[in-house]
Amino acid sequence: MLKVPKIAIIIPVYNREHLLNYTLDSIIAQSFTDWECILVDDHSTDASFEVMEEYQKKDAHFKAYKRPSELKKGANSCRNFGYTKSNAPFIKWFDSDDIMLPNHLEIAYQIIIENKLDFVVTDTINFDHITGDMIDKPYNFDRIKAVFTAKNYALNQIGWITDDFLATRGCVQNILFNEIITDGDEYNFFIKLLHHTTNGAFINQILTHRRIHENSITIQNKINQTKHIQIIATLKFQTAKDLIFYDNKELICWFLSGYMQQAFALAKLKSSIPSVKLAFKLIHNYFSFSKAVAFIFAIIIVKYLGRGYAILKYART
Fold first, then answer.
1. In the predicted model, what is the mean pLDDT of the chain?
2. Which residues make Cβ contacts (< 8 Å) with residue 145, sequence separation at least 6?
């Protein structure tokens, strides 16, 4: 009978032929060795899958899969599929272009075990892909005084990237990555997780180097202003919709208000707005019918007359 590894590292991969080896070598170099690494290729158009297969051949810790064609394209679908292929009692998601420092897994695992936690959150610093220079941290806050709540995370009073997180399998087993969201997916996921448990700890130590380069999804999505606003609108609406399960009216209304603001900006740009009909229903349910009507009226007025902010303000409050 095969021994089940303690930690499953799950990595979605898309067109990372020239960067993936750096990430996988950093995992091989871990001082903690009881892991499996599940790689899920999102049907790359370069040689990424061949790189994955090479690592699988030379090291049995690696398992290479292609996303089944019947599943939705995207990193979140790959993460959800990768989870189903894992067996380990601890789960770690990681990105295919970042670097895991050698003692990352050892420190995270030791603290989660010793303190009987559901999850731990390490720290990360960004580095420039071209120069190799360290730039800044994705999140800056007092990690000693920080308190885990869904509201604190939603309002960016605390935060972390996907790479920072290690959790027990039981902690994440009933939570899926939202496959409609294409950026900010970890934000949506961790807000949901914090409705299940806040039994975690911050590790005040940088254990990941996050690569900043022109082909990263976040950078690409910010290049086109309209697309960037559409992504934010989708994130706000989908998170509001997901939080219905937890009956958190305060955060649902907060996300819907943010969605309305982004929808207004898109209407002003005369661009398509995601999920308007579904949003109307949610605004009706969690605000009022009159505010849902006001929201629709505001985006029509701004689209054709360039006005309507006062109406939007009424809808959002």
1. 94
2. none
C-alpha distance from residue 199 to each of 106, 168, 193, 205 (Å): 20, 11, 11, 19
β-bridge mates for residue 128, sequence order = 212
Check residue 134 and report its DSSP letter.
Answer: B
**CA neighbor of 39 nearest in space, from 2, 85, 74:** 85
Specify whether the CB–CB gap between 76 and 178 falls below 8 A.
yes
Segment 33-84, tens digit of pLDDT? 999 999 999 999 999 999 999 999 999 999 999 999 999 999 999 999 999 9
Say how far apart CA 3 and CA 58 lie, in whole Å: 19
CB 256, CB 243: distance < 8 Å:
no
Q: Could you tell me if residue 255 is left (phi over 0), alpha (psi between -120 and 50 degrees) or otherwise beta?
A: alpha
Answer yes or no: is pLDDT of 223 > 70: no
End-to-end CA distance of the chain: 60
Angle between helices 276-286 and 249-268 (to 10 degrees): 140
Residue located via tokens 């750096």: 22
Task: Quickly state the pLDDT bin for 3 (edges 50, 70, 90).
Answer: confident
Sheet holding 7-13, edge to edge: 62-66, 35-41, 7-13, 90-93, 165-168, 119-128, 200-212, 99-100
